[in-house]
Write a structure and sequence with these properties.
The complex is a heterodimer of chains A (328) and B (343). With 328 residues, chain A is mostly helical. Chain A is 71% helix and 2% strand. The longest helix of chain B has 32 residues. The chains are: A mainly alpha (328), B mainly alpha (343). At the A-B interface, helix 5, helix 12 and helix 14 of A face helix 6, helix 7, helix 12 and helix 14 of B.
Chain lengths: 328, 343
């Protein structure tokens, strides 16, 4: 028995296919985490409901496009997606209105509960969402774009593009745009008030700022990215069912957020890529594990990353220690 | 409150104000009356037999929810730790009992004992390696919560790694064997395993309650829950009490896991699924209040099972937990049992 037994399949890991795979899945979590960055990193509110906002965005879009499980088409995707985002933002404001007055720990529990309520609704309102049956047939408009991009690469550049290449191009352009716009917004007076709310809410209020309204606005921006991420998740799978939106999605997005570092929008993009490169590499670890064991190993990696970061480097890769302010 | 009593309006309170004041001062009475009215309504629409039967089932579900909630609320109150890994301690306990009593073919009682002891030890282990050092560092809320979420992932996926994702069953007679009994003239039936889980749950929880209320140890624990610094000033060995708290929380979680494993199948993710109902019981009971958690856990169990009475609502039953949790957070985040504290 030589070293071959504990080996890593480097050829597979260094391939373009694998890179695209990582960028596709990490892109989705980066979108979700950008929203969390606005809430957690810059406003100091612990939004734990991102999976619910994603579910809302994805389901409203899918139901509007397909007209429900037995429907035969209702709206164009280009109308349905913005509507879904607006509905989700309104839901975010509603959740915030009733729960933002609470202490940080109660707020965290309230947002998880709200997210689970959305998921349970999707699971049980069969006639609208299809229940546990996957809902599909909403992705043709989006696919025409991604296929167009892939065709362009193939005809103009002669590349043989792997699966999800078009998806990766669209989502990463969105991410770069999102991070750019958010970074800009952070330097406006509005962004500075958010930071003031995070650092010392009483002081901000004493200066005449309606801090509650700013927190609501922050949550609306957070749920905007939640809905957008949910839309991308739906396009990635091509079908959606309630299990795609378990609370674990929120926690994985927090892993991305923390690894990248609080109060850094560009850090989110790097954090997502690094975390998913780490997680997905476990697929190519040839140490004789069953597929189910590899799946558990991936979650174990995320858990350990979270624990070790919180213990030894809570500011993550690019965050600043002094900007980590929540609760207490 | 104090400011309000000085105003002139208060001398002639209107009927509405009086109701409001009463509700503010006796939230438990109001809450239990609402639960009672729901029961009466269901009795009128359906039948007393159904309400009593599902209520009884609910108490047995509630017994392990309450047991998990008592442990979580102790930790929450004393250490100010919102522990998202608590549900996975239940799973760990259930699997420990499974390993000893089924995989190794040992007696069930030994399995139960192993579950309690091993889960208590696991709780102690995490306190010594993670929570204690983090408290010493002065870690904030977000740091601790995310750490507990990471820990939940690690426990759950470790169990899945070793035992696989398929559901496991404890070796108890969960056939339809049931003991009928008479309740004001109505014949009710409860499967024997449900009887056992209900009895064990209530006996253990009452014992823990008495211990907290009447022993010096219980007083010390409650003192820590009020203020750790003040408790330390009065000469209480806080480090020791913290460790004992973990033994209680872990042991109760382990036993709750066993009860869960007796009445239903156990999967690696079951503890996490139970976490929100457990949190609901903790919040409803008032964070840090074990008696509240006990009462709220049992009541929640009953409400959840009542939801199965109306036709077509059975799938929504876990939604009841969220509805109650969300309503509690909106209307009365400080909980309905015990004294009001500002949140």
């Amino acid at each position: 028995m030589d070293l071959v037994y504990f080996a890593v399949n480097w050829e597979a890991i260094l391939s373009v296919d694998f890179l695209i795979q990582i960028m596709a899945i990490s892109g989705i979590y980066a979108v979700l985490a950008l929203g969390l960055q606005v809430n957690v990193g810059y406003t100091g509110i612990a939004n734990f409901g991102q999976a619910g906002f994603a579910a809302m965005g994805a389901y409203v879009m899918a139901v509007l496009v397909t007209g429900g499980p037995d429907g035969d088409g209702l709206l164009s995707f280009w109308i349905a997606m913005p509507v879904a985002i607006l509905v989700t933002m309104a839901f975010g404001v509603l959740v915030g209105t009733v729960s933002l007055r609470l202490r940080a720990d109660y707020f965290a529990i309230a947002t998880i509960a709200a997210a689970e309520a959305v998921r349970i609704f999707a699971q049980n309102a069969d006639s609208i969402t299809g229940g546990n049956q996957p809902l599909f047939g909403f992705d043709s408009s989006f696919e025409s774009i991604t296929e167009g991009i892939e065709d362009f690469f193939e005809s103009a550049l002669g590349w043989d593009t792997p699966l999800f290449t078009g998806f990766v191009v669209v989502i990463w352009i969105t991410l770069v745009l999102g991070a750019f716009v958010l970074s800009r917004m952070q330097r406006t007076p509005w962004g500075r008030v958010l930071r003031a709310v995070r650092e010392d809410e009483e002081a901000a209020r004493a200066l005449g700022k309606n801090t509650f309204s700013y927190k609501l606005q922050s949550l609306a921006v957070g749920s905007f990215f939640g809905a957008l991420g949910g839309g991308f998740l739906a396009m990635y799978f091509g079908v959606i069912n309630p299990n795609n939106f378990e609370p674990a999605i929120t926690f994985l997005a927090y892993g991305v957020l923390i690894l990248g570092g609080l109060a850094s929008y560009w850090g989110v993009l790097v954090g997502a890529f690094v975390l998913y490169a780490l997680i997905e590499s476990t697929r190519y670890l040839d140490i004789g594990l069953s597929e189910a064991q590899e799946a558990s190993l991936r979650f174990m990696v995320v858990g350990l990353v979270l624990i070790l970061l919180m213990a030894f480097r809570p500011q993550g890769l690019f965050g600043k220690r002094e900007e980590m302010v929540i609760g207490d | 409150m104090e400011a309000a009593t000085l105003t002139a309006d208060d001398e002639n309170p209107t009927g509405f104000d009086r109701v409001r004041n009463f509700a503010d001062n006796h939230p438990a009475v109001v809450f239990m009356s609402i639960v009672f009215l729901v029961g009466v309504a269901l009795t009128i629409i359906f039948s007393l037999r159904e309400v009593a039967q599902t209520g009884l089932n609910g108490l047995s579900t509630g017994s392990y929810v309450a047991m998990g909630a008592v442990g979580l609320t102790l930790v929450y109150g004393i250490l100010k730790l919102t522990n998202f890994a608590h549900g996975d301690l239940l799973t760990f306990g259930a699997y420990m009992a499974f390993v000893v009593s089924v995989s190794w073919d040992g007696p069930l009682l030994l399995g139960i004992l192993a579950a309690i002891v091993m889960t208590a030890l696991l709780g102690l282990f995490f306190e010594l390696t993670m929570w204690g050092p983090m408290r010493a560092k002065g870690a904030g809320f977000l740091q601790l919560v995310l750490m507990s979420i990471g820990l939940a992932f690690v426990i759950r996926s470790s169990i899945q790694f070793v035992a696989g994702g398929d559901p496991v069953f404890l070796d108890v007679d969960r056939s339809s064997a049931s003991t009928p009994f008479d309740f004001i003239g109505i014949d009710l039936r409860l499967r024997n395993v449900l009887w056992i889980s209900l009895t064990v749950g209530v006996v253990v929880l009452v014992a823990v309650g008495l211990l907290l209320q009447f022993t010096l140890l219980g007083k010390k624990m409650r003192a820590l829950s009020d203020s750790l610094d003040l408790a330390e000033t009065t000469g209480i060995n806080t480090e020791r009490i913290v460790l004992i708290t973990w033994v209680f929380a872990g042991g109760l979680a382990g036993l709750a896991g066993v009860l869960l494993g007796m009445v239903s199948q156990v999967k690696p993710e079951v503890g996490f699924e139970l976490l929100l109902p457990i949190f609901a019981a903790v919040v409803l009971g008032g964070i840090g209040n074990p008696f509240g958690a006990l009462a709220a856990g049992l009541t929640l169990g009953v409400l959840i099972e009542w939801a199965t009475i109306p036709e077509g609502l059975a799938n929504w039953k876990f939604g009841v937990g969220f509805v109650v949790l969300i309503l509690a957070l909106i209307i009365r985040p400080q909980g309905v049992f015990g004294k009001a504290k500002a949140v």
